[in-house]
Amino acid sequence: MTLQPPARPPIAENQPIDGHSPGIKETAAFADAVADHGGNLARARALFPDTPAPWLDLSTGINPHHYPLRALGAEVFARLPEEARCRELAALAATAYGAPGAAQTVPAAGTQLLLPLVAGLVPPGRAAVLSTSYAEHARAARLAGHAVTEAETLAELETADLAIVVNPNNPDGRVAAREDLAALGRRLSARGGLLVVDEAFMDVGPSGASVAGDVEAAGIVALRSFGKFFGLAGVRLGFALAPRELARRLSARLGPWAVSSPALEYGLAALGDADWQAEMRARLGGEAQRLDTLLAETGLPVAGGTSLFRYLDDVPAQEIFTALGRRGILVRAFEARPRALRLGLPADDSAFLRLADALRAWREGTRSI
Amino acid sequence: MTLQPPARPPIAENQPIDGHSPGIKETAAFADAVADHGGNLARARALFPDTPAPWLDLSTGINPHHYPLRALGAEVFARLPEEARCRELAALAATAYGAPGAAQTVPAAGTQLLLPLVAGLVPPGRAAVLSTSYAEHARAARLAGHAVTEAETLAELETADLAIVVNPNNPDGRVAAREDLAALGRRLSARGGLLVVDEAFMDVGPSGASVAGDVEAAGIVALRSFGKFFGLAGVRLGFALAPRELARRLSARLGPWAVSSPALEYGLAALGDADWQAEMRARLGGEAQRLDTLLAETGLPVAGGTSLFRYLDDVPAQEIFTALGRRGILVRAFEARPRALRLGLPADDSAFLRLADALRAWREGTRSI
User: Fold this and answer.
1) Interface contact A77-B262, CB threshold 8 A
2) Where are the domains of chain B?
3) Disulfide check for A127: which of A146, B101, B162, B180 has CB 3.0–4.6 Å away?
């Protein structure tokens, strides 16, 4: 029997936390949580203080199977990162991502840090973000002095000074065609604007969809995240792929030693390991299918995503968030999408089992009402 | 017998590298090297290709005795840095440095990254740097849109929109009085300007000289470097201590996950270890004295510095740089100070012995001419 998703619960975001009514408290907790980024387990512990540890964190799109770590010698932490080693990393990343070369590749301590710098590459004007997507882009564009609007289609981005597309999109996994983005980039740059394509999840995106090879010719800045696909978000490493002159400006802003030595060493190892990357893509694809099957069995058909996260839309998000949270499972909810949830991949059989149990308990709870 | 420093050699910065004359090649090499930051061993290897490895790097002011490193679990590298852990680090750093509190303390992936952001806290205007100091300050101020001038005295800084003092100064170790800086900060902020005090080497500076406690009241931004005193430059960690509102603006620019997890973990361990800090200050003081004695015995009286580096002025810098470089010892030379050198501390007896041998060989070479 396939269950229909239960009806939408009321979400009373403005109700106070009075500490007496669990319902009100959890509603407020949900309202807090949706404003969060993923991965905030300290907040999760505060929201669900009675939940037994350890938490199962499915709130991010970070690969739960990290690239194998070799032990680093003390000298890696002690000495300044070597400039030559950073140039090696830029060259290797250019090859791995398909950018024109090291001169178009800027390593940084995470793409997050790059967002306001990239938004500042064009004079303050009107920024348009293809909606609804990663909230940090709008925030970064405002910091750089832009007035920010949301756009529903690529065509609407054409009149912006700064246009931002997340591709594949987070959280729904929507993919824009490479040729459309390249054309948009050329039109924007021809009149002094800039297209930014955030390819944070492109490592598991469709083959041939990346604009990495187009950045110079089409005047695009593409952002690549290291930590998500390689499962090493703690090291802080990301790249801007950009036309040579913009890459030079970004590098100047970051200054010397922009990337820590552990990030340099792990980046060089992982980006150079094409075999691991290919095997991991296949493995993540299989695990995403397994998650889809589990969700479908619970009456939750997957509406999109990438193989690093799955996206549920038009579901009782608050109710599922709370039911899972009480059982120590953190998923991602969204302020702008109150009926949506995003789930990262469970790391192993026991995590899949735990999620299955929690979803079954939620389903049985709703059925008994 | 005390030797006088040999006469100044000609420095022909504009001579071409022709590959035939070692003298000209090494002069050009020196011209390249002075534009470098410290710690660039790859450049040193290229300059002195016949030098046997390993190099002894005395070109930085980084403590050669790093804080003891505990092994970090894979989860430290795999998971996103936790926001709560970063707040703990801010609170601990505030206590360790004497800042008003966590609200005035901004952790970042190295102070280098903070320089243009701090310079951008005031609208583009006239920046003045107390000369001659760390070149990155002038570069960062220009990036933020300021016209940059050099000032010889604190008094000359009073008319600037952005005033920058490195205290203790790098490379000469000059120290400005805390009360003078606080007064300057108040006067600048009263008319919309800003005083930035780079306290990169204040961990080994005179007791009571830090303006960390004055940042809120005097409207100052102080910069603290983690990697230098704790000998962990590869992790990239630094702090801005700033009035609450400026700290908030800096944090917003950095965004979430501004500090890597290894930096968080080592920062929390080291900044909380007051015993190690006190013992290390005493140890470094002793080793700096030992280096002074060695240099004086070679006819090179030390003109200043801190206990993390010693400063030589009015010496045949190019000649010493080259003589040491041929023996695999890298020291710091300066574009703006062609008669000056800076030497970091040798790590141990064998490094002291190697430096002593190389200095003796240089001295005997000059005597035989």
Assistant:
1) yes
2) 24-64+276-367, 79-272
3) A146
